[in-house]
């Protein structure tokens, strides 16, 4: 089976590490900025009323916590992207029915975007992957839904 899983226009498809390294770079710049502010604060403080050392250590500890949160967020973003890719590749070759039952078909291709996943059928129809879609290994039956319009008329009596 030929797999045309992920569109080449996807900015995350080329390398997962680019977003994480950009976040790490920006957090490093923020850390350097914090150190520059701390040095300036110490340089221009009032010599008759110096800043308390424990207050400076508290500021440094708080900033360190913020820096770790930024790194954790970038790692979480990478994990979410990897999960989206895995979910997308699992859909190829399966039958999909949209949440509103208007589109049904065999998934030929999947496009992963930063805000969601779109499955593309062999006919070219696009289905947003969201709660309510149906994925199956077999083609859905084409029988129309049962309509209870008989009114309970029983002709056997």
Q: How would you describe what is shown here?
A:
The chain has 157 residues and is an alpha+beta fold. It has 2 domains: 14-90, no CATH class; 92-140. 42% of the residues lie in helices and 16% in strands. The chain has 2 helices and 5 strands, in the order ααβββββ.
Summarize this entry quickly:
The protein has 157 residues and is of the alpha+beta class.
Summary keywords:
157 residues; alpha+beta; 2 domains; 16% strand; rod-shaped; disordered N terminus
How many H/I helices?
2
Shape label: rod-shaped
Distance N to C terminus: 57 Å
Number of domains: 2
Helix vs. strand class: alpha+beta
Rg: 28 Å
Strand content: 15-25%
Layout of secondary structure:
Elements: H1 17-43, H2 53-91, E1 95-97, E2 104-113, E3 116-121, E4 126-128, E5 134-136
Antiparallel strand pairs: 1-2, 1-5, 2-3, 3-4
Helix pairs in contact: 1-2
């Amino acid at each position: 089976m030929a797999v045309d899983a992920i569109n080449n226009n996807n900015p995350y498809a080329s390398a997962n590490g680019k977003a994480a390294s950009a976040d790490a770079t920006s957090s490093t710049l923020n850390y350097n900025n914090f150190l520059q502010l701390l040095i300036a604060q110490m340089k221009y403080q009032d010599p008759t009323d110096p800043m308390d050392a424990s207050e400076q250590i508290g500021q440094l500890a708080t900033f360190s916590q913020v820096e770790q949160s930024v790194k954790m967020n970038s790692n979480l973003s990478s994990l979410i992207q990897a999960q989206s890719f895995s979910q997308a590749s699992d859909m190829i070759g399966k039958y999909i029915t949209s949440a509103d039952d208007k589109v049904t078909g065999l998934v030929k291709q999947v496009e992963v975007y930063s805000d969601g996943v779109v499955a593309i059928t062999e006919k070219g129809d696009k289905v947003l992957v969201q709660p309510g879609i149906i994925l199956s290994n077999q083609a859905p039956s084409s029988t129309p839904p049962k309509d209870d319009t008989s009114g309970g008329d029983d002709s056997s009596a």
